[in-house]
TrEMBL record:
Gene3D superfamilies membership: 3.30.420.40, AF1104-like, Uncharacterised protein PF01937, DUF89, domain 3
Catalytic activity of the protein: (R)-pantothenate + ATP = (R)-4'-phosphopantothenate + ADP + H(+)
Record protein name field: pantothenate kinase
Residues in Damage-control phosphatase ARMT1-like metal-binding domain copies: 500-546
GO cellular component, one term: nucleus
Length: 573
């Protein structure tokens, strides 16, 4: 069962919504508002693909690549939901879908057989076993049949699986003679491979090249995704690809959330996505804003934050890509030798928060293609450089943040907590840069600011800015007199020289000069600080006499918004 709660409603979908309805009423006094499972799955998938940037990704040979989906070219697609069984749904539009196929061999099959054969106590334990398994002790390979040789005539290598569990026929062994790790891996391959093949055959049936896999069976498990991906790639001869969703375990809950639209979103005060995340746990992390979802409200956007457990971040689990072995007619990575982290059950997602006030910046030339990141941290050397910079700067930042709160014992405690949390984020991202979606420098810097705010440091540079503003205002009049005494050429050079100093001694003289030349000027500031930025709340007090606006990069246009295009002229430095 997937459950979504708010202060007013309790939405639920899936079989558990019916099975446990009386128990919820008896034990918790909650009446479940049941929503149709298939409707919710499709609505949830459509929502994610439209609203969350970098939601979809491919996973081949341990490598994750994000795919940007054009919501105007989203349909039709095939949605393969892998739960206890498998439902295969052809989605033609919002509210337009048909369950075209399915199979009873799914996650329940893997867990059921695995529990009987290995005595595992949980689904996650079974997955962990597979990470250390070697299927060659159980699966019959082509080489086992042909004396270690390939069957080149039909394109099968010696390491291709000819029969899952086939060696158990001839081996004179009992169940206890087989490793639970090997059994788990063979089971995972057998089931994942067949799901991938059945999915592709249905895609071929309807002429679809885009296949999305979701459901709680996948659980962010890299080897499961690799196996499914190779099946689709092999049987389609590369013409189709398997894609996965970062929130794949939450499609139904999100779909149930979409039903709130009938009640009016303005009536909802709190929304929490509840499935694996503990209620009341502190969460922090990068804000990931998707474009507004027009079906709901043009001014709605979404923010994603990542849950912390102490200093542990609930996030995806990396699976080291080892060597290769065979599966169903093609080569796939072997998982032998890898290890699974203790937080392996955690999904590659954060908590989604509704943000009703965000709007697309009106002066962007093309909001659909807007990308704030100039520096792509997929480049490992760039990643290491910026992680080193942020790590080395962290103690100084903590000192400034604590000072901004008066240096109290409570501020020191929160400062230490922030340092541990942000260090945990950096360590997680160094291990897997794509853990929270596509990572650029702008995302990394925003993650740090969001992390500060989660520990109640609204403006870490507040005390420093106050001192600098007082000192700057004291000399502003002298600077303006000096500028006024210059020739036109000299004043132009001076404007360039002082432009990036700060708002008072940089932007105010520049804005004043442009106004004198008849230029329309608009002064803009962020609602929340990034580093020592002057904010929109502070700007009116500093420039009470300014009436027009200009765009200005405050010295960071090199790594953010350098490539952004606007409808008006923009200065970037």
């Amino acid at each position: 069962m997937l459950l979504l709660t708010s202060w007013f409603f309790e939405k639920a979908t899936g079989g558990g919504a019916y099975k446990f309805a009386d128990l919820f009423k008896e034990k918790l006094g909650i009446s479940l508002d049941k929503e149709d499972e298939m409707n919710c799955l499709v609505a949830g998938a459509n929502f994610l693909l439209k609203a969350i940037r970098h939601e979809a990704f491919t996973h081949m040979e341990g490598q994750k690549e994000f795919v940007q989906i054009d919501q105007n070219d989203l349909f039709p697609y095939l949605l393969v939901n892998i739960g206890s069984g498998v439902s295969i749904i052809k989605v033609d539009g919002d509210g337009k879908f048909e369950r075209v196929s399915g199979t009873n061999v799914g996650g329940g099959t893997y867990w059921g057989l695995g529990r009987l054969l290995t005595k595992c106590k949980s689904f996650d334990e079974l997955l962990e076993l597979s990470q250390r398994g070697d299927n060659r002790t159980i699966d019959m390979l082509v080489g086992d049949i042909y004396g270690g040789m390939d069957y080149n005539k039909i394109g099968l290598s010696a390491s291709t699986i000819a029969s899952s569990f086939g060696k158990a026929i001839s081996d004179k062994k009992e169940l206890d003679d087989y490793s639970p790790e090997d059994i788990s891996l063979s089971l995972l391959r057998m089931i994942s491979y067949n799901i991938g093949q059945i999915a592709y055959l249905n895609a071929l049936r309807f002429g679809l090249k885009r296949i999305f896999f979701g459901g709680f069976f996948i659980r962010g498990h890299a080897y499961t995704m690799d196996t499914i991906s190779f099946a689709v790639h092999f049987w389609s001869k590369g013409n189709a690809q398997a894609m996965f969703l970062r929130h794949e375990g939450f499609l139904g809950a999100l779909g149930a959330f979409m039903s709130y639209e009938t009640h009016g979103l303005d009536d909802l005060m709190v929304h929490h996505l509840v499935e694996r995340f503990p209620m009341g746990a502190p969460y922090t992390g990068g804000s990931i804003h998707g474009p507004p979802l027009g079906d709901l409200n043009e001014k709605i956007s979404w923010m994603e934050k990542f849950v912390l457990k102490g200093t542990e971040i609930t996030a995806p689990v990396p699976m080291a890509p080892p060597g290769t072995t065979g599966l169903g007619g093609f080569e796939v990575p072997s998982s032998k030798g890898g290890t699974l982290r203790p937080d392996a059950s955690a999904l590659n997602v954060g908590v989604l928060h509704l943000v009703p006030t965000l709007e697309v910046f009106p002066l962007l030339a093309d909001p659909k293609t807007y990308e704030p990141n100039t520096i792509d941290l997929a480049d490992h050397s760039e990643l290491e450089y910026w992680f080193t910079v942020l790590s080395e700067h962290l103690p100084d930042l903590v000192d400034k943040a604590v000072a901004s709160e008066g240096g109290t014992d409570d501020a020191k405690r929160r400062g230490d907590a922030f340092a541990r949390a942000f260090s945990a984020h950096l360590a997680r991202l160094m291990e897997e840069p794509a853990a929270y979606g596509k990572l650029g420098l702008a995302n990394l810097l925003e993650l740090r600011e969001e992390c500060l705010r989660e520990f109640q440091f609204v403006d870490a540079y507040r005390s420093i800015k106050q001192r600098e503003n007082e000192a700057s205002l004291a000399v502003l009049s002298d600077l303006l007199v000096e500028i006024d005494s210059m020739t036109e050429d000299e004043s132009q050079q001076n404007a360039k020289a002082v432009e990036g100093a700060d708002v008072i001694l940089g932007m105010l003289p520049l804005a004043r000069e442009l106004l004198r030349r008849g230029t329309e000027v608009v002064l803009v500031a962020n609602s929340l600080p990034a580093l020592n930025d002057v904010t929109a709340m502070e700007l009116p007090d500093i420039v009470a006499e300014a009436a027009k606006v200009i765009l200005e990069g405050m010295g960071r246009a090199i790594h953010t918004n350098f490539n952004a295009r606007f409808k008006c002229d923009a200065l970037k430095e």
